[in-house]
Amino acid sequence: MSLRRSRSLTAVALAAALGATAAVTATAAGAAAAGCRVSYTVSSQWQGGFGATVAVTNLGDPLTGWTLRWSFGAGQTVTQAWNATVTQSGAAVSAVNASYNAALATGGSASFGFNGSWTGANPVPTAFTLNGVACTGSTTPSTPATPTPTPTVTTPPTSPTPTPTGPAAVRTVRVFWLKPTDVTYDQRYPDGIAAVVREAQRYYKQELGRTFALNNTVVEVVNGEHDRQWYISTNCEPGGDRYWCVVANMQQELMRRFGIANPDSRWLCVGEISAEDPGQSGGGASTGWVLLSGHDADGAAGVNGPMNRWYGGMVHELGHAFGLPDSTSTDGTPMSASFYNYPDTHFSQAQKNAILAGRYGGFLS
Q: Where is this region: Disordered (predicted)?
């Protein structure tokens, strides 16, 4: 099995699970002094994707809840978000406060972030409204008005997706997120992992002219049988590397519960688990399997580091699963440390030939 390690990054707690039902009080435009200022920053960008941070400052009377709206001008779409519930219909985007950042005093600010996709161009939106009031950087005077009703915004449920029981399509890349019993379900994880493998799917098409298929349920959420510490410490030799214990315990559970072999001619499997021993982060793969611990799961969910690092890491580990070895030097290919430069990294012709001729080359079409 191939192993890659990276220096541990400090996880940043960004948001509570997005699966709550939030009641939002809409302040009527003109019912009180109103005004706002918005800062929209593209924090990272790669081919086909980007990350953005949005900060909104309330310049008017205090608010007990807020909705920020804007429209994209070039077909961009939001794929995941944190610190706000973000929905999109066509070009129109709405971001609703989380429970913990709903109150905005006069001069108070709140920020949230999201990852998105783009094609062709990624211009910054030019107009925003806060609770229906245009954000111009100044305030409007108070005038009597009838408040608008309080709308209710419903977001996905917090309960975990049921453990998958139906058969998965064969000759596909099958992806699992294993959630230990003491880990709270968080929709950012299946959504984020799905975004990472979809980006890897796009990249392989770009590089090889063909790519792998994913199941309709891209990420199968598995409610683990044990708590995090069990996965970290069980089946470990004294003084052994607990990173390998974590991913090996995950793999053995997935193989037993879903009747999967190592390797398996039906599927190329990707497993991510929300558990890892502190300081023992990284990723690994062997022919037919990618095994990733909590550091990578957090990264995919947008909790840990720039997204292009996690995209490059998935491309690297899938390369191993398709049969490629590590490069012997930093050679500009994703099978070396060059994967950190994703998307500015490319397979060599020899690597492309090896993937297509390998055990799982027939999965690509």
A: 138-167
